[in-house]
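DATA SHEET
Item: assembly model
Revision: 1
Owner: S.N.
Input lines:
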Amino acid sequence: MTERALNELDTFRQEAGLSHGELWLRYFEMGGMSSGLELEAFLYGVLLPSAHDHDVIAHAINERFVELGGNHPVAYSKDVWSDSKFQTWTGGE
Amino acid sequence: MSLINDPSRFKVTTSFEGRSAVLGLHGRVESLAAFDLWAAMKGVIDRHRETVVLDLTELEFIGAAGLVALADAEKSFAEAGVELTVRTPSRLVKQLLGGMELNEVTRLDQALARLGHLGREQAGGSSHSSNRPNFEASCEDLRRMTAIPTAADVVDGALRLVVELAQISVGGADGVSVSLLRHGGLLTVAATDETVMEMDTDQYATGEGPCVDASRRGRWFHAESLETETRWPSFTPRARALGIMAILSSPLTAFEEPVGALNIYSRTASTFDREDQQTAAVFAGKASGILSDARAGATETQVAARFQEALRSREIIATAKGIVMERESLNEEDAFTTLLRQSIKSGVSLLDRAESFALSTGRPKTGCEHQQND
């Protein structure tokens, strides 16, 4: 694995063409509890989200990629997927 | 706010080599960077330099707003009679093109060079962030993110850059176009060549085809081989007559509404694999970002309506979580993870998955689950 950028999630967000506001709405729809500002902090790697929060954000971005014809490029935590089909998110390391 | 205005995220350096000015772009080019970039360029033009080198070697990422800024820069230099050359590194190209290995770095320069004359009116209104949490803050975000007005011709220029880049990076692509819904009809605003233009027009004329469907229905369509394709009987023969054998159309959205499609055409059947589809999705995302940025501020009513919708979805998902918690004696987070896994496995969105759960409550499990259709 190559070194992972702190703002990796934000890069995915941009590639999916979602504004911060749109992503927060999708995150909120899925039950996300953090504020827009906290979400930005997660995206930029300033705050480390819980595995659960990470999965909600990852799925909000991934669903958008699926709508666009893509796959699930954002890795989930091992709680969601422990086999090798998707990359596993292991927190900020 | 420090998170958003963090200066380490983007920097322009100016240096001079003889009669040339070198503008070095470092970090990430996003919305805010566009203003810094503009200020630096203005400084260079005012000093009457004849050539400007745009050095992208240290650039880590370029987003939709960055593409607009570059298109804008190209136009401004052309207007001022300044000759522009671009230094592009493989690192940027790799980032830009989704981590693919690519040897055709020079073609990116060509794509930039071919942009031609574009308008310039990238408008101001610098960003800010609110300290208020949750709803209000994100409502503010939502308005801020959708309120950067961009002149239509700059947008079209940036979209032309997107189609050029998509053609370079999607394997098997012989032509790329962007169609947008304008005044109730579809219109091609960027196309790499005449055949592609004709392909789009044929779809508008017959009212069918992957481009039309992706634009109207907001999801992607892939015609793997037009030899065997049956979905668009009026359009398909016309495409074959022009030698097109495969089409991949990804939807473009602005503010969550479908507004057009990114269409990739090939003369070879079954040429687009999963990786190509993913790359196309990335470019469709970039183009959507450009369109969202360009959209002149969502109205209060639109913002309110979107919140209503989000609240409704949140309730449905919460209900489904409750059902899973009850049925499987799980806590809330584990119940969510269960729904998430099912959604991924079945290829159904989390909301649709939750909806079928929510609708199934109270009924005995006799297999007569209702599926909601819209």
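QC remark: Chain B touches chain A through 70 residues (CB under 8 Å).
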